[in-house]
Amino acid sequence: MHGVLAELRATAATRPLWIWGAGNQGRGICSVLQGHGVPLAGFLDQAADRLAGRVMGLPVAEPSRVLNALDGVASSQRPFVVIASWFFEAEIAQRLRAAGLGEHDDFIGYSRLKPVDYSVDIVGVCNLKCLACPRASRAPSDGKLGMMSLETFRLVLDKILAESPFVGNLQLYQWGEPVLHPQLPEIVEHARSRGVLCAISSNLNADVDYARILSARPEWLRISTSGWGEGYEMTHARGRWPRFLEHLREVATLRRTLHPEMKIEVYYHLYKHSVGDSLARFQALCDELGLELHPIPAYLISLDDVLGYCEGRPLPEPARQAAEQLLVSLEDGLAAAYRERHRGCDVLRCVNINWDTSVSQCMLYYDSVGNTVAPSYLEIPLERIQALRHAADLCRRCTRYGLHQYCASYARMEPVSEAASA
Ligand code: SF4
Ligand code: SF4
Question: Is the complex ipTM more than 0.90?
Answer without folding.
Answer: yes
